[in-house]
Amino acid sequence: MKIQIVYFSGTGNTMAVANAYGKQLERLGHDVKIDTIEGKQSIEPHDFLIVGGPIYAGNMPHELIQWVRRHVPKSNGPKKAIVFSTSAVLGNAHGVKSIAKKLIKKGYEITDAACFEMPRNFYIDRYDPTSEADQIRQFNQAAEMIVQSIQTIGNEATYNVTKSVLMIDMLADIFAIMAKSMGKKFEIDETCIQCGICEKNCPKQNITVATKTYHNRCILCTRCIHNCPVAAISYKGKKIEPYRVPYEIKI
Ligand SMILES: Cc1cc2nc3c(=O)[nH]c(=O)nc-3n(C[C@H](O)[C@H](O)[C@H](O)COP(=O)(O)O)c2cc1C
Description:
By secondary structure, the protein is an alpha/beta fold. The protein is built from 7 helices and 10 strands. The radius of gyration is 18 Å and the shape is globular.
């Protein structure tokens, strides 16, 4: 089966899950293509689609929602999909519903909506880093969840979204607007070695290292902070310890 995986990942958690899905599907003999939505304007023909993203303020990032709206074509026959999210907690991981609903409208049937709890790395405001024991538990659990999720591919699709997702989509729109000004609170300090990694990797081309400037296109993904080799980026004057995805999801 030709399986297309598309995702957005700011700091690597979603990418780790997407890659683990891909690896396992390849092991099972599928023809798998994995792409980030960054710079991707179209989607290749596929038999099965998997869409994943992080949870930002209860929904998927505005960028991913818009990408699905614009770039996933209407299916011209019954097609199936899996949606998944990664987040610090599961209590407000509603983003899978939003993406699932868009895919259902495009003619897809959803076989699974999986919410992965991953190590916290959005501790600029609210969360403390996850303990090592919890991280190990999360990665083991992710491996089990992926196996179960993949098993649904051959099943009849049972996941449905009956309620409106208008409110959570509005929140994603509002959050995207807030992020632009919140993003102005990042600062690059004098320890910066001008390596340009933040500028090169920013999904919105929002950073100019030479002038240490954040423009107004930030989506708050925090990739800049976590990829900085010298931890030169602070938020609201607070230094943040860079996060790297700590383990591989081994199946
Ligand atoms: C701007 C922002 C908002 C977030 N909001 C939430 C949230 O509402 N609930 C939650 O559980 N995690 C939240 N998180 C944590 C991310 O969902 C989590 O770290 C995710 O795994 C990041 O995925 P990525 O590494 O693929 O970018 C937030 C992270 C960011 C950067």
